[in-house]
């Protein structure tokens, strides 16, 4: 816990109160292991007529200070256990929740966060699984979540009007609210990504960042309908989002709207194998982050990020950008790979920068001969099994089918479906929605060991160019200690034709994440390795010994040799 040692009233008038709790690190008095080399300023703000309070934090590491690694930072709210039992995090994810005591009396499953409720205080919850990771969301969707008290009828809500200070971009997943009752405003963490998504400050490195403000909103109602308070909280969230960037924070490190800039333009996709002319990049995610390599925004942890989506003609407008130097990044649903603008962008106070027409040339070597999945950076389109009857969370049953991946224990269902032989997918016959398991995991043996698995993709080639070069694109939606080897037509070949070495610490399989960090690998296969008629790709995930080792596929594409224009 980051406890302040000094208190100061920053502003106090008839319309606003802002207070500050600070902790200043003294290099000459570094006697406590808990005294991080970090200056901390915790701010709390109340506005007249506003039903709640705001909080934001300022972290500072001065030049010359020692190395510091911060794996996670967040505001955690623990509510009264006797009062708050109903949790809401989205329109279709709301329910009565177990208590901490219910969890303590339950059966711990494969890891401590997952508990089977055996003697809950609410009998309707008996036999369900509770796990805080079942309620994670992507940064772009963590807007409002919280709890409702029945008597008196009061709602407590965490409203996040912007994620400009969060690490990992709009698709990064993190915790929201969970049993406790607990509500979180996560600034950054390694959840669904790995420890590299924490903040690592080298010795002597200067760094300063503002996290928030976040709004903690309270509402009340005399009806018996929980959704009345939820709908009001959504309305308040929309108001807060429209007011961002706020005009009330007193810290000079938080620029107000008139101190920020705008970046706009239009993005096209150029892929002649789809369309001879450049296409509008529809609904593309496009954003600004610290300068780096293509796709580096996924791993960027120290600066700010500003994202939006393009319209149906590829037009975009990124507003409220803090002054600074950025790279422009993008990815397009339905298209593999990442885009990066060739030049750094220097945003100044009041800037309105129009980049004009931008063209993204995605990875492409030849025509598509076949594909598996949808290039959308998730495994959501693949087959997600039903959980075992005794390990369900009723919230994600058939009436909430799109959220079924959140159920506990789905990794072990692979063994139930494929007890002796592994998955075989036949192009043109199989359906990836029914026949492609959502995660390439290990198989459980009778002795409860977890062994490698080898999936097969069977596909026909009416003809083969022995001198041509074919391309296999494999996009991974997540990886957890995954090590993938690929062989063409010969599963016993000593040396694989292609390989993805051990990567990833996302833990997305265990934590019910349908994706983690995105990675794209492209392999060239020479025509003489193929044969006319049926061919087989053997995909072996060789890392074993744990039920959670493996990866989620996003998309696989097989391309023929390049064709002349």
The share of residues in helices is under 10%
User: What is the topology, as strand order, of the major beta sheet?
Assistant: 1-2-3-4-19-14-13-7-8
Radius of gyration: 25 Å
Task: Characterize the biggest β-sheet.
Answer: 9 strands, antiparallel
Number of helices: 4
Roughly what fraction of the amino acids lie in strands? 35-45%
How many β-strands, per DSSP? 39
How far is the N terminus from the C terminus?
62 Å
Mean pLDDT equals 96
Shape: globular
Low-confidence stretches: none
Structural class: mainly beta
Keywords: Lyase
Organism: Nicotiana tabacum (Common tobacco)
Protein name: Rhamnogalacturonate lyase B isoform X2
Key traits:
565 residues; mainly beta; 9-stranded antiparallel β-sheet; 9-stranded mixed β-sheet; globular
Outline of the structure:
The protein is mainly β.
């Amino acid at each position: 816990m980051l406890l302040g040692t000094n208190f100061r009233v920053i502003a106090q008038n008839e319309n606003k109160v802002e207070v500050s709790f600070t902790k200043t690190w003294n290099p000459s008095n570094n006697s406590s292991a808990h005294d991080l080399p970090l200056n901390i300023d915790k701010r709390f703000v109340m506005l007249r007529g506003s039903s709640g309070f705001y909080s934001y934090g300022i972290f500072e590491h001065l030049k010359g200070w020692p190395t510091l690694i911060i794996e996670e930072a967040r505001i955690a709210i623990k509510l009264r256990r006797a009062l708050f039992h109903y949790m809401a995090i989205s329109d279709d994810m709301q329910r009565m929740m177990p208590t901490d005591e219910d969890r303590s009396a339950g059966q711990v499953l494969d890891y401590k966060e997952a508990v089977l409720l055996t003697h809950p205080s609410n009998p309707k919850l008996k036999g369900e699984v509770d796990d805080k990771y079942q309620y994670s969301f992507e940064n772009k969707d963590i807007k409002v979540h919280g709890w409702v008290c029945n008597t008196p009828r009061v709602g407590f809500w965490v409203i996040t009007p912007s994620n400009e200070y969060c690490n990992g971009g709009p698709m990064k997943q993190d915790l929201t609210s969970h049993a406790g009752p607990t509500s979180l405003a996560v600034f950054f963490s390694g959840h669904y990504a790995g420890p590299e998504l924490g903040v690592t400050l080298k010795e002597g490195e200067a760094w300063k960042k503002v996290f928030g403000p976040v709004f903690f909103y309270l509402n009340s109602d005399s009806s018996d309908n929980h959704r009345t308070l939820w709908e009001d909280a959504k309305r308040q969230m929309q108001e807060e989002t429209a007011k961002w960037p706020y005009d009330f924070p007193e810290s000079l490190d938080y620029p107000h709207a008139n101190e920020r800039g705008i970046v706009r333009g239009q993005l096209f996709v150029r892929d002649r194998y789809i369309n001879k002319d450049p296409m509008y990049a529809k609904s593309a995610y496009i954003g600004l982050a610290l300068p780096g390599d293509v796709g580096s925004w996924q791993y960027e942890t120290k600066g700010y990020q500003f994202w939006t989506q393009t319209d149906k003609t590829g037009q975009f407008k990124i507003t409220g950008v803090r002054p600074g130097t950025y790279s422009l990044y993008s990815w397009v649903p339905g298209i593999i790979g990442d885009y990066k603008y060739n030049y750094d962008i220097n945003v100044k106070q009041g800037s309105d920068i129009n980049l004009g027409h931008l063209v993204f040339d995605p990875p492409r070597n030849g025509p598509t001969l076949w594909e598996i999945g949808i290039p959308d950076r998730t495994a959501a389109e693949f087959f997600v099994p039903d959980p075992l009857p005794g390990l369900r969370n009723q919230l994600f049953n058939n009436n909430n089918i799109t959220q079924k991946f959140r159920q506990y224990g789905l990794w072990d269902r692979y063994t139930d479906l494929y007890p002796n032989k592994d998955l075989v997918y036949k192009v043109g016959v199989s359906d990836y929605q029914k026949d492609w398991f959502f995660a390439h995991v290990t198989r459980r043996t009778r002795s409860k060991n977890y062994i490698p698995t080898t999936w097969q993709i069977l596909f026909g080639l009416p003809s083969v160019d022995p001198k041509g070069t074919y391309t296999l694109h494999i996009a991974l939606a997540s990886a957890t200690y995954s090590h993938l080897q690929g062989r063409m037509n010969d599963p016993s070949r000593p040396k694989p034709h292609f390989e993805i070495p051990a990567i990833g610490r996302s833990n997305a399989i265990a934590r019910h994440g349908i994706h983690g960090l995105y990675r794209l690998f492209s392999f060239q296969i020479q025509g003489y390795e193929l044969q006319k008629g049926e061919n087989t790709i053997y995909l072996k995930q060789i890392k074993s010994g744990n039920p959670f080792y493996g990866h989620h596929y996003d998309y696989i594409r097989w391309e023929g040799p390049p064709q002349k224009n």
